[in-house]
Amino acid sequence: MKATIYDVAREAGVSIATVSKVINAKGKISTERRNQIFAIMQRLQYQPSAIASALTSKHSFTLGLLIPDIANPFFAEVARAVEDRGHQFGYSVIICSTDNKDERIERYISVLKQKRVDGIIIGTGLENNAIIQDISSIIPIVVIGREVTSFPVHTVVAEDCNGGALAARHLLSLGHTKMAVLAESLQISSSRERVRGFRQSLNEAGISLPDDSIAACKKGLEDGKAKAAELLCRIERPTALFCCNDMIAVGALQAAKESGMRVPQDLSIVSFDNTLLASVMNPPLTSIAQPMDQLGEAAVDLLIQQFTDSNTAKQRIALRTELIVRDSTAVASTSETL
Q1: Tell me: the pLDDT tens digits for 88-111?
Q2: Does residue 283 have a cis bond before it (omega within 30 degrees)?
Q3: Residues 194-238: tens digit of each pLDDT
Q4: N or C end of the chain: smaller count of CB under 10 Å?
């Protein structure tokens, strides 16, 4: 026989009303107690009726997640973290790939509203922040991996500027002075911050980074390969590249190999994200690691907090980045640094 709410209550030593409050994210119940009850629900394989709950409490136990591209390993890992955390609290997650296009974002938001999702996590770039402002007045939202400065909103990000600085300091420690950056669209705040941190550390070391040494790669791997090939054809070519995500770095690695250059002997490459992709490349990529699990989990936690207290002050959570050194970086040769 299937477990019932009575079984959960008896096992937890609480009333049916308390279990119902946990299911519906209501009442003043400690996080520890909620987690205990959810653990019992999972062990007993108790599944509350989402339809009945939605009808009685206007709660669908469904979250929306907007990301640019599920094929990007970074967003795939974040999406998995969001799903896992959501499931811990009894929520299903609808994942939408937007390609960072406002019209597609608006269409998905319309669909999510029709599905009566309880909240939306937005991890996609937007040219029109009014879209977020409009939806936040109707549905609880959390922005992940991006900054919105035009109005207050719950935000979870990595320390992008510090990550860029870590990349620059690592390459400087290896003696590189001729560097270039392959960035995502500079309209995206995370990309701008990574470039800012990188450039700032170079400036502190007395090294300039000209604007023409920063190339935007909107199409990830494809643009990373094309833009890297252009940079490596220059008479004064860079001896090191900082790539603002793993996909771009893979494209740069391909360009280097096709041009006959050896990595890291002839060219050092630092990537950003540290997804599984970084560790399986040949050579494995030195990368700035983002805490992808923590990003997803914190976003879900902030969203669920809003279900019980919609008036809570907007929070900005910035998570630590870390340099992971692998085989794609090496000391610059004497001839290259002259």
Answers
A1: 888 899 999 998 888 898 899 999
A2: yes
A3: 999 999 999 999 999 999 999 999 878 999 999 999 999 999 999
A4: N
Q: What is the DSSP letter of 135?
A: H
- In DSSP terms, 156 is beta-bridged to 144, 317
| H-only helix segments in 97-145 | 102-114, 130-136
Task: Count the alpha carbons within 13 Å of 310 in the hemisphere toward its beta carbon.
Answer: 9
Helix (H) or strand (E) holding 166: helix 160-173
Residue identified by tokens 């990007």 is 72
Nearest to 98 by CA among 133, 128, 139, 137: 128
What lies within 8 Å, CB to CB, of 36 at 6+ separation is: 12
**What Cα–Cα distance (Å) separates residue 27 from each residue in 21, 116, 120, 298, 308?**
6, 22, 22, 21, 7
Tokens of 241: 């590249």
The angle, 0 to 180 degrees and rounded to 10, between the axes of the packed helices 189-204 and 160-173 is 40
Beta bridge partners of 214: 181
Taking the C-alpha atoms of residue 208 and residue 188, their distance in angstroms, rounded to an integer, is: 23
pTM value is: 0.81
φ, ψ at 66 (rounded to 5°): -100, 120
| Residue 69 falls in which region: left (phi positive, over 0), alpha (psi -120 to 50) or beta | beta
Q: Are 310 and 138 in contact (CB under 8 A)?
A: no
